[in-house]
Amino acid sequence: KYICLLISPVVDCDRGGFLNRNGTLFPEHDRILLHSFFRCLATALQYLHNNKVRHKDIKPGNILVKGHTILMTDFGTARDFNDKTRDTTVGKPAPYTPTYATPEVVDYAPRRLSSDVWSLGCVFLDMITILKGDMDENRKSFFSNKSTSGTNP
Which PANTHER family does the annotation name (predicted)? Predict the structure, then answer.
């Protein structure tokens, strides 16, 4: 296997920092930029999956913002697979962020590519919450109340 370091200019913030405005209104130019992030992130995940890579740790802290660019990072737990190996992971997962983890991760059930899609959907929910002018506490409350496993996914 190979280890690769990609060194780029320091980023402005992670995606969580980009959204955290401490209750202040989100400026219109940042709202427009945030809209473009949906497609960029979906395309990035599609690219990974088409190239047989499962990220396994999609969350705001692993999505970086530099100017008008958004970058998916931290492939430390990523898994590559091919036609002989499966995209499924079983057993106890690596440490994870409960808010962005699928019910399968929380329950130690088999995880597949759909786990990345779920996690990206949770990131999108964060973004939609901001675009609709709602507070992050409401999103967290939603997850706490809608959990399928009895814990905060």
Answer: OVARIAN-SPECIFIC SERINE/THREONINE-PROTEIN KINASE LOK-RELATED (PTHR44167), SERINE_THREONINE-PROTEIN KINASE CHK2 (PTHR44167:SF24)
